[in-house]
């Protein structure tokens, strides 16, 4: 089959690598793509937000499956346009993508489906926010209701900081159109990311991963789109994936079908393993970044047929997925100034040497060619450097050995991705909790599964 991957980041690079390694995939196109992809795919010019253009390209090139990577095209209805042109597409409709496009809507769906999550107030003015912050107490959790590139959440003990973030969201940052915020209870415990393929009726989980959202070691600093990830999770409770499928993913897919907006694509379940059990932190409507970069290298089942089965309502026809016992660790190299004001244009060198490290792969997230043809930073997150190995310790060492070959003046990366899990695994080979890892929102009290409380002034 021919596959078109829509997007230009490290997630799309990881998808292209996995699809190119599938013997049943004869051609992989990526648009708009970017440097570093030419060895695994044909890079094609494309506006990822233009559904008509995406559908026309897919039709003209005889594409059998379109895989939409980022969230913005899904919320804009690109998957609808592709399917209307008669091309199979992995990605939910614009109506179903509201699970990511609006956190308030996601809370409403979870309440209807009985999915465990933190209690929340949906606020549309500062007075409502102030009342909600006081009702829940610190630490304060404030989320931009709309898309924010992974940077719309503030978790802070400082009420003034929380209120300032809420005001910025309510004012509507340029391009977001956000005029509501969700104030939640804080959720304790480590976070887990689980991708679940959905075909509108059935669900199929992939392997869990954990990402690091904070900029700095020790889970300090501002939230980002993700500074690294690892898989597998040796400390995760036995039966976690089954529980998430039964209590979260399947109920949500059933509820979306009941509403007449079936969810077909990837349901990203962001979870907190709290002292009171699994709670949903957030949903995304696509593969996550950087978790995709560590989950796909471990998948032994060829990816193309799996994604097409999800896109065409045939998940129940698949054989069980097979996974490598090896581990994968991704460390993100970010531009100076990220996430607040990333500076582009800095020369990026050493990528070839990094890619030559055994077990390593360098995935391009935000790069471009400079005037002299050299590689330069062109985004907040510049590269994902992925290491694989027979253990998390080996994969982690591989990633850092490769990253040590790369140079970007002022570049930022974390040095502790998977370190707690490696230390815990060495101390106790059995399942264990590595402690809070960028916990995000946590539930200190009873879970309210009733209707979302829309705060009133």
TrEMBL record:
Q: Which cofactor does it need?
A: Mn(2+); Mg(2+)
The residues covered by the ATP-grasp domain are 107-312
SMART domains, per the entry = GARS_A, GARS_C
Cite the SUPFAM superfamilies for this sequence: Glutathione synthetase ATP-binding domain-like, PreATP-grasp domain, Rudiment single hybrid motif
> Which UniProt keywords are listed?
ATP-binding, Ligase, Nucleotide-binding, Purine biosynthesis
Alphabetical list of Gene3D superfamilies matching this protein? 3.40.50.20, ATP-grasp fold, A domain (3.30.1490.20), ATP-grasp fold, B domain (3.30.470.20), Phosphoribosylglycinamide synthetase, C-terminal domain (3.90.600.10)
> Is ATP-binding given among the entry's keywords?
yes
EC numbers for this chain: 6.3.4.13
Q: Where is the composition biased (Pro residues)?
A: 431-444
Q: Which stretches does the entry tag as region Disordered?
A: 423-457
Its UniProt entry gives the catalysed reaction(s) as: 5-phospho-beta-D-ribosylamine + glycine + ATP = N(1)-(5-phospho-beta-D-ribosyl)glycinamide + ADP + phosphate + H(+)
Q: In which pathway does it act?
A: Purine metabolism; IMP biosynthesis via de novo pathway; N(1)-(5-phospho-D-ribosyl)glycinamide from 5-phospho-alpha-D-ribose 1-diphosphate: step 2/2
Question: MF terms per GO, please?
Answer: phosphoribosylamine-glycine ligase activity
Of which family is this protein a member?
Answer: Belongs to the GARS family.
Q: Which NCBIfam families did the record assign?
A: purD
Name of the protein: Phosphoribosylamine--glycine ligase
| Gene source species | Pseudokineococcus basanitobsidens
